[in-house]
Design goal:
Four Helix Bundle (Hemerythrin (Met), subunit A), elongated, single chain, mainly alpha, 5 helices
C-alpha cells in the first residue's frame, strides 16, 4: 500500500471513531430521554385522572440524559484534531461513546422511576436529582479520561 492510501485510511478510521463517539452517546441520550419522556407522560396522566396538578419539574428528569450527547460532541471535535492517528481514535471513539451512551440510557431509566415517584408523592426531588447526578458522573469521567487519552496521542 502506498503512503497516501495509508494516510487516507488512518484519517478515515479516526473520523469514523470521532463520529462513533457522538453517535453512540446520542443513541444513549435518545433511549434515555425516551424512557423518561414516556414515564413523565404516564405520570402526568395519573395526575390529571386524579385532578392533581401535573408537576412541570418532570421535564427536568426527561432532559437529564441529553447532556451525554454534548459530551460525545465535545469528544468528537477533539478527536477530529487527532483523526490522522487512525485506529487508536477509532477504538477510543467506540468505547467512550458506548460508556457515555450507556450512562444516558440508565440515567433515563432512573429518571423514569423519578417521574413516577415525584408525581405520586410530591416528595424526594433532590434525592432523585442526586441519583441522576451520580449516573451523570460516569459520563463526565468517561469524557475527561478519554480527553486525557486522546491528548496523549502523537500525530
Amino acid at each position: 500500500m502506498n503512503p497516501e492510501a495509508i494516510t487516507a485510511m488512518n484519517q478515515a478510521m479516526g473520523i469514523a471513531g470521532a463520529v462513533a463517539c457522538l453517535g453512540l452517546s446520542a443513541t444513549g441520550s435518545g433511549f434515555g430521554t425516551g424512557f423518561a419522556g414516556t414515564a413523565a407522560c404516564g405520570a402526568w396522566k395519573k395526575c390529571y385522572a386524579q385532578n392533581k396538578p401535573a408537576p412541570f419539574i418532570l421535564l427536568g428528569f426527561v432532559g437529564a440524559p441529553l447532556t451525554q450527547t454534548l459530551y460525545g460532541m465535545i469528544l468528537m471535535f477533539v478527536m477530529f484534531g487527532k483523526a490522522s492517528a487512525g485506529l487508536p481514535i477509532l477504538i477510543l471513539g467506540i468505547f467512550s461513546g458506548l460508556g457515555i451512551g450507556v450512562s444516558a440510557l440508565f440515567q433515563g431509566r432512573c429518571a423514569a422511576a423519578a417521574c413516577d415517584a415525584q408525581a405520586e408523592t410530591g416528595q424526594g426531588l433532590t434525592n432523585y436529582f442526586g441519583a441522576l447526578g451520580i449516573i451523570e458522573t460516569v459520563a463526565i469521567f468517561t469524557m475527561v479520561f478519554t480527553l486525557i487519552a486522546v491528548l496523549q496521542i502523537k500525530v
